[in-house]
Amino acid sequence: MDLKLQKIIPQLITVLIVVLVFGFFTYNAQINMENRGIDFGYGFLSQESSFDVQFSLIEYDGSHSYFRAYLVGLLNTILVSVIGIIIATILGVVVGIARLSPNYLINQFAAFYVEFFRNIPLLLQIFFWYFAALRALPLPQDADAMFGVFFLTIKGLYVPAFIWENLSVFLYSIIAAIIAIVVIRVHARKLQETQGKQLPVFWISVGLIFILPLLSFLMGGVKLSFEVPVLKQLATTSFIYEGGVSLPPELIALALSLSLYTATFIAECVRAGIQGVGKGQKEAAASIGLNPNQVLKLVVMPQALRIIIPPTTNQYLNLTKNSSLAAAIAYPDLVLVFAGTALMQTGKAIEIVSITMFTYLTLSISISIFMNWYNKKIAITEK
Amino acid sequence: MSKINFLKPDKSNLNTFLYLGSFLFLISIFDVLLNSFFSINISGFLPNILSFLLPLILGFIGLYFIRIELSGIKQLDLINKHINTNNFNAILSLLIIFVIIKSLPPILSWFFIDANFAGDSKDVCTGTGACWTYIKVWMRRFMYGMYPNAEQWRINLSFIALALLGSVGYFATDRFKKYLTLYYVVIYPFIAFLFIFFFISGGPVFFDFSYGIIAAILSIIIGFFIPSRFKFYYFLIVPFALYILLKYFIFFEEYIELGKLEGLNWVETGAWGGLSLTFIISFFCLIFCFPIGMAFALGRRSEFPLIRYISIGFIEFWRGVPLITVLFMSAVMFPMFLPADFFIDKLVRCIIAISLFEAAYVAEVIRGGLQALPRGQYEAAKSLGMGYWRMHIFVILPQALKLVIPGIANTFLALVKDTPLIFVVGLLEIVGMLNLAKTNPEWLGFAMEGYVFAAIIFWIICYAMSKYSYNLEQKYKTDR
Predict the structure, then answer these.
(1) Residue B330 contacts residue B350 (beta carbons within 8 Å)
(2) In this structure, are B325 and B291 located in the same domain?
(3) Which of A28, A109, A360 sits opposite B320 (nearest CB)?
(4) Of the candidates B79, B160, B224, B346, which lies 20 to 30 Å from A91 by C-alpha distance?
(5) Which among A15, A35, A103 has CB closest to B92?
(6) DSSP of A15-36, one letter per residue?
(7) Cβ A122–B417 below 8 Å, yes or no?
(8) With contacts defined as CB-CB under 8 Å, which chain B residues touch A106?
(9) Nearest CA in chain A to B92
């Protein structure tokens, strides 16, 4: 009896406190909303939003609903996160490997990069790129073309647009190439296990992924042309580029600073991962006659990836969450469009902040569930 | 002297290769130096692309010549080992050297040579370099925000006093060493709070000390009669309950009374700002997030399922959302959850929000340390007859915390780097002040200087913190 009581009382007290706090909050919220004449509900999502967003991936203007505005914000968040993740991964892996280089200059350079960008607040970096560095770019009429087709100006980066004919054939050819690679890999593994023969799988894959799409150009009637941005005069001093794809400076500043900042953390993960593989593993692999490339590919990397991937995923999540700093430089992401403009217009503080938080929460919890599953799958099962 | 094969440098012609190689290498560096410092192109007679690549080619050949294994010359072997192991490394080393030489002159001239230090108005900044006059003029704003100039000695005095009180640990003799933990965990934060609250703000007293002391004494007296296993929960709840009971239900005081300190002007928190606000926020969040995080880490490893689930929910919630939405919540949503006539200061709301947010991260870090301890430690402590709290305080936590020093330092670093986000609720610490200053019509166009200045400050703070944590880690490293 005594023991049972000892177990129940602390739990009861904790639950009581939690319930009391939440009860107090909801009670107050109800009274406050009654006093101010606000009603609680998510009906506003289908109402007309009547505000404009500067940059959106889907068609959107003031006549669309608040839900559409939410989607615009979410897609913009995803866009900048994906760009940031790709650049940060490439940069992070390169710097992480460079930190392990035997070359003193290279590893010091990499260490300097990591120490420099890691210790400056991300928000400050975003401000620096957006308000100081990108503002020093030339005006549209003064910009020099890079490689003849890119225009980097104060109003953003203008790149040529792809104009496809028979795009679907091209996509089918890529899908066919991927399927062929998978089939060849399976076949090569079988061949190695049964007969001990090795196929140059890597070079076959590279060849396939280039040749099949190339064939679609030659025989499938796929045509690709570029629409190069052209300078156009709006008024005597106001110029703009027309045609092509334009990336706003907000997006560039945000993607740049996010990737430079996160790359330092990814570099540390990569370094820790490669260092985490025991020296004996490499020596053992070398002593059974594998060449350095094989050692890296077959022995070090599989074990290092096991250490690298979980913290790196965490960094991807951080990058996605940090992309909400976009609000500071008016890049229309989820926080700015929805928790900023939409909130100001509707005054539905509780609903909108809760939807925004719930979106981020869903994102991170789903990724962490996936990571837990993945960790369990690749964990070394000790006998 | 044997036959020289230029494609294969070897030891027999060591001197020839050494002189030739170093000569070529030095010439390549000399070329780049001349080019970048005096903009003289000595290879101007060559075609453009060749002239551009010439130093790289010369340097590469030079490094190739001096790459002689086991030459017997110590310096040469060192160079070969560190920057010249193979062709690929040689080219990368050359590129890095050239990039450094090339980027030095513009950086130097921007920072120092062409920069303006004198004067106190925009007119002196005519050069192409940085305008440090701008920083000089705005220094007070960057450091103290909108805090009135005449009152800034209060901030200085408080910070100096706190720094002195904080360094007590270094001077404490062995006799007082055992009280240090108590001092730093309980007394020092309390003194800091008093300083910041009464000295920097000089502001409205919402905590009534007379009732507080009565409540504390009463609850300690009653505490003697409480069975020991409930004592923890008793002291968690009863003193606060007694205080509220005494103040609002027995003596019917107003919710907030605005008492002010004699002789000090009240400076509302909206006027605080600059670097001092960064320090204040980091300091308080640091103090609050640690115990909260520790509590939730223990909660997550608790054997009681309800406590465990509540802790998991708390931790995962805060870890799943970006700080900026948390601050949004504290700004627009939180006031809705409080009684209509109850007002919490913006800065306090901010500190609560950031503390809860970082506490979740601290909790995860500490949980890592708790999990890393071998089960034998728990079992040994239990077999000595220790209870839950005794076991954790004397055996588990000291070891676990030692293990997670780097993780906790990283979380604190993240906290310091997150403070600029408070611009969301309209508080302007140093980055916010920079953004305000650069929109001032008299000082347009100096954004770069401001950001560089703030970046240097933050870099120094964060780098010092990370080095300090590394030292701590080394100091408390115990082999097991």
Answers:
(1) yes
(2) yes
(3) A360
(4) B79
(5) A103
(6) HHHHHHHHHHHHHHHHHHHHHH
(7) yes
(8) 89, 92-93, 96
(9) A106
**Secondary structure tally for chain A: helices H, strands E:** 13, 8
Shared-domain flag, residues B291 and B248: no
For residue B417, list chain A residues with Cβ-Cβ distance below 8 A.
119-122
* B190 is a domain residue: no
What are B393-427's pLDDT values in tens digits?
888 888 888 888 888 888 999 999 999 999 888 88
Partner residues linked to A157 by β-bridges: A152, A247
On whether both B361 and B461 belong to a single domain, the answer is yes
Claim to verify: residue B324 and residue B412 sit in the same structural domain: yes
> Do B245 and B283 fall within a single domain?
no
- Domain with B459 in it: what CATH number? 1.10.3720.10
pLDDT at A148: 67
Q: Is the Cβ pair A32, B81 closer than 8 Å?
A: no
Same domain, B324 and B470: yes
* Residue listed under structure tokens 């450091």: B143
pTM of the predicted model as reported, rounded to 2 decimal places: 0.85
Same domain, B385 and B458: yes
Tokens 């200053």, located at residue: B437
The Cα B273–Cα B145 span in angstroms is 4
Tracing tokens 């593989």 back to the chain, one arrives at: A277
Same domain membership, residue B295 and residue B385? yes
Go through A312-342 and write b for each residue having 16 or more CB atoms within 10 A of its CB, e for each that does not.
bbbbbbbbbbbbbbbbbbebbbbbbbbbbbb
User: Total structural domains in chain B?
Assistant: 3
Contact across the interface for B431 and A135, Cβ inside 8 Å: no
Vertex B7 angle, CA B3 and B8, to 5°? 70
For residue B183, tell me if it sits in a domain: no
> Does the residue B420 lie in any domain?
yes
- The CA distance from A260 to A263, in Å, is 5
| Per-residue pLDDT tens digits of chain B, which is 480 residues long | 456 777 777 777 778 888 888 888 888 888 888 888 887 777 777 777 777 888 888 888 888 888 887 777 888 888 888 888 888 888 888 999 999 998 888 888 888 888 888 777 777 777 778 888 888 888 888 888 888 888 888 888 889 988 888 888 778 777 777 777 777 877 788 888 877 877 777 765 555 666 777 888 888 888 788 777 777 677 777 777 887 777 766 665 554 444 455 566 777 778 888 899 999 999 889 888 988 999 999 999 888 888 999 999 999 899 989 999 899 888 888 888 888 777 778 888 899 999 999 999 999 999 988 988 888 899 999 999 888 888 888 888 888 888 888 888 889 999 999 999 998 888 888 988 888 888 888 888 788 888 999 999 999 999 999 998 888 888 877 655
Beta-carbon separation of B340 and A115 below 8 A: no
- Which of the residues in chain A have pLDDT under 50? 383
B window 76-95, beta carbon within 8 A of A: 81-83, 85, 89, 92-93
Q: What is the domain range of residue B37? A: 11-113
Beta bridge partners of A156: A153
In a domain, B319, yes or no: yes
Residues of B in contact with A133 (CB under 8 A): 448
Contact flag A103-B89 (C-beta cutoff 8 Å): yes
CB-based contact B365:A62 (threshold 8 Å):
no
